[in-house]
Amino acid sequence: MGTLFMTRRAFAKASAVTIAAAGVAGIGGQALAEQEGASSTGSGEVKHIRSCCRGCGKMECGVWITVKDGRVIKSEGDESAFQSAGNHCAKGQASLQAAYHPDRLMYPLKRTTPKGQAPEWQRISWDEAYKTTVDAIHELQKKYGNETCIFMGGTSRIWAMGPYGALKQCFGSPNGIQANEICKGPRFYATKLNDSNAYSWMEVVGHPRVFVQWGGASELSNYDDSCRTTVDVATRADCHILVDPRQTNLGKEADIWVNLRPGTDGAVANCWANIIIENDLYDDLYVRKWMNAPMLVVEEDSFSPTPSSSSAQSKSINTRLLKESDLKEDGSDTRFMVLNELTGELSWYDAGGDNPGWEGEDWAPATAGKEAHQFGLDMTGQAQGFVLDYTPFPDGLYPALATEAGGREVELKDGTTVHVRTVWERYREFLQDYTPEIVEEVSGVSADTLRKAAITYATRVDPSTGYGNGGIQYMLAGEHACNATQNNRACDLLAGITGNMDVPGGMRGSTPGWPVYDLAMCVPDSGKTTAYTLDKILGKERFPMIGSDCNPSWADATSVYDAIESGEPYNVTCGIGQTGDFMNQSNSLFASEQLCKLEFWCSIDLWHTPCVDMVADIVMPAAHWMELDCIRKSQGSSGAFGATVKAVDPPGEAKNDLEIIVGLFQAAGVPYFDEAVHGAAWLEGDEAVRACNNIALKGFRITEWEEYKKEFQEKGWFDSKKEKPEAWGTYRRYQLGNGAINGDFPPTPNPHQGWNTTTHKQEIWSTVLESWLPGQGEEFPKFVEAPHGPVADPGLFEDDNSFLMTTGRRQGTYFHSEHRQLPWCRELWPVPRLEMNPVDAERLGLEQGDWVWIETDQHKIREVVDLYYGIAPGVVNAEHQWWYPELDQPDHGFKLSGVNCLIDRHAQDRIIGSSNLRAYGVKVYKATPENSPFGNPVPCGDDGTPIIHTCDDERLKSWMPLYEGRE
């Protein structure tokens, strides 16, 4: 280990030596695309290609793809991939069946029958597909305006993110229906408000000493981190805390289970904060210096503050936080006032000027610190990283967290006297509504369990490290119960007050990408794209933050569907979908009905999905991950980056999504590439893909895709800690400058210390929400009950068969709507399951395997009862996004079991519009021949054909891989 104390510069040099040694030693395992002749049978060529799986979620696992005679025959884990520890799950291995599936889309298609009828398709050329799409959209835009066009994007196949940016730039419309409105986006946005975008990611690979698993099960689906990594971390942690209404697979091993009522996450998070503060377990120096806790809030309602020009988040900041400009005529509106505990006088933090800082401070980036000492990192070859020591306040300054009783009196510049108290005092007062006893009544979790969990999380296992036990892996559940923004703000503040922001095992943000962020390969660099603004973005009328200059980046999905129906505020008539579907948010029935009214729709996909067969006029076939090249980086905090590497050619005329988007730009006459850099405004085939990847490599030490891919093949996954030891390999980067907070890829000037907020501090009191939602009391992360839960809508829970339903759990064979047509997956899990406590099942006369109806005032669906003691009586857990590819009808039976057909589409997060997908009342009763269509409790298609519901259904054989006829 050497000395525990060194400068950041010395640590960087040591890390460089480590990289050089690793380069000499090489990575275990033999690569590579060049390896030949390893065939065990026959004389065909065998290649082993290092790549990146995309069989499921947001953590990209490293894999080896074995290709024999041009055919993929196996995929397995890559031992160089420290972020996934050589793991390769069932969904990933089933990718082989997806790549060679006989139902893949292989050619561009044009619909020849009216929508609403069984679709018939005519094969067309790519040129016709591009031209038809662009001409149709342009014609409608001339009639209705650019914003008449919408774009739909699904889960982040990182090469297929056109709806999130590039398509808006091609057609000049801001309207994207994006899956991140209900998946990751609310978390990212909550931390964008509090500190910095996407700091909801936790460095699980850093082995937190206390592992808090909140509302998710990444042990089953690589959502936030690899399955294997999650299991290793949880089982080796000093304590594992599960916060979930359902005992997850890994949760059965948890030391503490906070079994909360669905939809009460925000109340529990605020309760933890109350307990931590009352027990003096908060990180005092971080709270005083790096949160806006000591800043002073004016109490009087009559106070009219001067606007602030501190514009790190928004140019429209009007905050009750006291500023020097409120006190004197020539005062600065970026100097936020505090009370100096040492002198009893007012002092300030200045968020403006050439070198923002505290009064009396000449700020410079921190340098002193020591190497981290997290156990288990050596097993996967990770670097430890360098933890900066906290820097002290300037001499003579120590901001107070409390004022005298009743608040400090100050005189404003107009001569009036007001009272001020610190944000911290106001926060503690706010938290009095979230005591353990109060939250026990709200959440159903005992006060003792709440105390035990919070104290365990906040009490440092090893105080000698100087940092906390780790962050909180808060996942999807908090985003889905109409309090999404504030639920996630509350969890973020828990990590802040305990000193777990940007520390080993803590909240670190997304792994840095180039040149700006991880989607750069999906963004044109011509500088000549079609401009658009947020002035007409759909959703801003109901949700002002969507149209603000501190926005979450999406149009509200429900507002888009409402606009199609009503024509207000304008006509929505056409669009393009890329990997997206209408089943993931809002009400699926209403959404599908509205999309079918569009005058034109183009789908870019791999399959005949409900969206393709119900809505599309033009279909463009996309390549599978085994068939394409693209830079890949972990979306989370692992620091891993590598590549998806083309192993085989796609079937027929299917193309890499990157190339498809460039083709649409060319047809639209909008330059995609910078001609001075790439030699042309548009490119085709491998050249287009290479150029897209080169855009993303700008700023990295390897700027050419082929060279990058070669090094990846030879040496394995890149570790950001080693590549950028100062910007990613360093912890507490808010002490280096706000550019470093997001990894400094590429190196950028650091204009100020601290976080990317109005006050440069992690904001307990949100100046953005205060300014944009005045008078609504959103400054602190308040908890509001789900609109159709037992408190807000008790009438839904009066019958014996009334239940509170949660949905969206992870499981081992599917990822959201994916893989229902893969034989390996479907035979293991043929039908959707409704988990129910056996006590409830016995009361209702239900048995394991019974089909039941699940009903709301919107619709009713069927799933199969799965008896499970790991869910509380009165609560049921349904599976989400089921559809049945085997049903030969346009909607493929999504209405039969699609859980989002049940929801109230206007039950939404009050700040950003995210749908209420969990924590609502349903009726559950047995499906019988008498109450089921066709006299069959098993769901059937329109013609009476039952779905596949057993593992021995002969129809599974028709989905076996097709190896011939793919040319």
Strand order of the largest sheet: 6-5-23-22-21-7-8
CATH fold descriptor of one domain: Barwin-like endoglucanases
CATH class category label of one domain: Mainly Beta
List unreliable stretches of 5+ residues.
Answer: 1-41
Give the amount of beta strand, in percent: 15-25%
How many DSSP-defined strands? Answer: 33
Helix content: 10-25%
Quickly give the CATH architecture of one domain.
Beta Barrel
| Cα radius of gyration in angstroms | 28 Å
Structural class, by secondary structure, is alpha/beta
State mean pLDDT (0 to 100 scale). 92
The main sheet comes to: 7 strands, mixed
Family: Belongs to the prokaryotic molybdopterin-containing oxidoreductase family.
GO molecular function: acetylene hydratase activity; iron-sulfur cluster binding; metal ion binding; molybdopterin cofactor binding; oxidoreductase activity
Protein name: Molybdopterin dinucleotide-binding protein
Keywords: Iron, Iron-sulfur, Metal-binding, Oxidoreductase, Signal
Description of the structure:
The strands form eight sheets. The protein has a seven-stranded mixed β-sheet. The protein has a six-stranded mixed beta barrel with strand order 28-32-29-31-30-33. The protein has a four-stranded mixed β-sheet with strand order 1-16-17-27. A hairpin with a 2-residue loop joins strand 3 (62-68) and strand 4. It starts with 5 loop residues before the first strand and ends in a 41-residue tail after the last strand. The longest helix has 19 residues, at 126-144. By secondary structure, the protein is an alpha/beta fold. It is globular, with a radius of gyration of 28 Å. 24% of the residues lie in helices and 15% in strands. Among the domains are: 186-286 and 439-498, Dimethylsulfoxide Reductase, domain 2 (3-Layer(aba) Sandwich), CATH 3.40.228; 794-959, Beta Barrel (Barwin-like endoglucanases), CATH 2.40.40. Belongs to the prokaryotic molybdopterin-containing oxidoreductase family. It comes from Eggerthella sinensis. Residues 46-103 form the 4Fe-4S Mo/W bis-MGD-type domain.
